[in-house]
Amino acid sequence: MAGAIIENMSTRKLCIVGGILLVFQVIAFLVGGLIAPSPTTAVPYMAVKCIDVRKNHHKTKWLMPWGPNHCKKLKDFDEAVSRQIEANDIVFAVHVPLPTKEMSPWFQFMLFIMQLDIAFKMDNDLKENAEITLDVSLAYRDDMFGEWEEIAHAIENRKLKCTFSSPKTLESEGRHYDCDFLPFMEIGSVAHKYYLINIRLPVNERKGINVGIGEIKDIRLVGIHQNGGFTKVWFAMKTFLTPSILIIMVWYWRRIMLMTRPPVLLEKVIFALGISMTFINIPVEWFSIGFDWTWMLLFGDIRQGIFYAMLLSFWIIFCGEHMMDQNERNHLSGYWKQVGPIAVGSFCLFIFDMCERGVQLKNPFYSIWTTEVGTELAMAFIIVAGICLCLYFLFLCFMVFQVFRNISGKQSSLPAMSKARRLHYEGLIFRFKFLMLITLACAAMTVIFFIVSQVTEGHWKWGDITIQVNSAFFTGIYGMWNLYVFALMFLYAPSHKNYGEDQSNGDLGVSSGEELQLTTTITHVDGPTEVYKLARKEAQE
User: Fold this and answer.
1) Bond from prior residue into 39 cis (ω within 30 degrees of 0)
2) Amino acid 460: pLDDT
3) Residues 142 and 246 in one domain
4) How many structural domains is the chain composed of?
5) Whether residue 59 sits in one domain with residue 48
6) Which of 165, 195, 226 is the last residue of a domain?
7) Do 334 and 252 share a structural domain?
8) Strands 90-96 and 48-51, how do they pair?
9) What is the three-class DSSP state of 277?
10) Fewer CB within 10 Å, N side or C side of the chain?
11) Do 268 and 198 reside in the same domain of the chain?
12) pLDDT value at 225 more than 90
């Protein structure tokens, strides 16, 4: 009777906790959907064609497209030909942001892509697999009348991928090619108010530089940055969630330390998962408002990679510790086949990120995809990581199948047990299935909201209410995985309740006062887990 009361109370508490977490999950989605603006903003820029006459009377090498000290402009290249201005004396200038606006550290990052307007001309056709060479410079200043300070300068190559739908005849001259966007620049902080980009297209016929690239009419840039309003909501969520996970971590580990046995593998992995979640949550981004930390994008990728690696490892170990067979798996070495692909895949993605964003710390114009060697290297890392991910999911699906098969086999022996013992194991099985269901729901919601955010226009409008779908995706999924880790530590913390003297010696067949855990995988100081005892008893029979 006491066992039934305890199990009923446990199930009732589980439902209450689930309801509370569901409420917080809904709030997380609503915060992004109703309070935060869209995560990013895209701003188009048209480069102004300037004449570089600094050899004669320009004191500065920076050419401004507008303002009191703007450059001498060209309307088009026909004007340059008529005035006998060479291509090497033309500079494409872009000022960021647009007039009357300012950039802000709340924008967090800037990503630029380039589009070239290339016209068809019979005597200056675009060659196949043409490559354009860009001499690019980036500068900043914090007031409209200050001197420009250089951030970076580089000479970069980009492969042109263009198509021409019309026949290449005299009648088609002047029509534009349809060209793919080119990666141009990425910078991991927006610490200054104004930025200036100068782009030169140096021509050297002897060396074949910028020869056979067609007749370039204009250069367009699209600048993408994070919205300041979304950044504030994101920082607020991090600030709120950090102490929440820290508190449950301290409580969880304290419960483990009160036990008379050392922590087992699953408990350590859950605690490590909490640490990795806290590592993501700690709002170090607040410092980026006052400091020019260009490495924040790379640091964010590393934090997410650590968390996902720990999450995937936890799922494998969780299934293995619930296998209910006669194998002892309370050591990480017992999972090397399953955890190995996670380590290899994570390492490949880390190297790829270092080759991309790591180099961009010094050269924001760099892209690993612009050269054949870089593209092949990047694809190799991604393919290896993809193979490792596929192997991991095959292992995981096989282990989940084994667990449910073993559970079905053990359930047939439950009716022969005493009532208290049967209720105890039914509770353990129920908790495993409950966590599996929550895990599948979290994974499904992540995939569903990602797809919805990609195929929708970014927001839904219901009457006077506008819901930002993309913002809801980011805040909702971020909050969901925090709640998932919170629930893990709360539900799988060791319990210090016991069934009492009579039930311990009678129905359950364990020593007086022995602690019963909420998890199925706790190893007692005097022997293996309760589930292992049950499995071995069945095997002997």
Assistant:
1) no
2) 60
3) no
4) 2
5) yes
6) 226
7) yes
8) antiparallel
9) helix
10) C
11) no
12) yes
At 484, which CATH number?
Answer: 1.20.1070
Structural domain of residue 312, as residue ranges?
5-39+229-492
At 299, the pLDDT band (50, 70, 90 cuts) reads very high
Is 310 found in the same domain as 222? Answer: no
Is 323 in the same domain as 438? Answer: yes
Q: How far apart are CA 297 and CA 303, in angstroms?
A: 10
Q: What is the pLDDT of residue 185?
A: 94
Last-in-domain residue among 204, 226, 248: 226
Same domain, 324 and 178: no
Q: Which two tokens stand for residue 373?
A: 């060697």
Could you tell me if residue 355 is inside a domain? Answer: yes
The encoded tokens of residue 412 equal 């047939």
* Amino acid type, 247: I
Instruction: Give the side-chain half-sphere CA count within 13 A for 503.
Output: 21
| Residue 219 structure tokens | 């250069």
pLDDT higher than threshold 70 for residue 17: yes
Please check whether residue 374 lies inside any domain of the structure: yes
Of 134-138, 279-283, 362-366, 398-402, minimum mean pLDDT range:
398-402
Q: Cβ contacts of residue 444 below 8 Å, gap of 6+?
A: none
Residue 525 lies in a domain: no
Beta strands in 72-126 (DSSP E): 90-96, 110-119
pTM of the model: 0.82
* Separation CA 524–CA 499 (nearest Å): 16
Q: Is residue 502 part of a domain?
A: no
DSSP conformational letter for 244: H
Instruction: Give residue 220's pLDDT.
Output: 95
Q: How far apart are CA 365 and CA 218, in angstroms?
A: 19
Q: What is the total residue count of the chain?
A: 541
Which residues are CB-contacts of 453 (< 8 A; sequence separation ≥ 6)? 469, 470, 473
What whole-number distance in Å separates Cα of residue 33 and Cα of residue 470? 8
Distances (CA, A) of 372 to 157, 407, 528: 11, 52, 56
Cβ-contact 42, 223 below 8 angstroms: yes
Whether the per-residue pLDDT at 162 is higher than 50: the answer is: yes
Torsional sign, CA 341, 342, 347, 353? positive
Paired tokens of 418: 């005493």
User: Using an 8 Å Cβ cutoff, are 495 and 252 in contact?
Assistant: no
Say whether both 392 and 447 belong to one domain. yes
Closest CA to 228 of 183, 288, 297: 288
d(CA 268, CA 203): 62
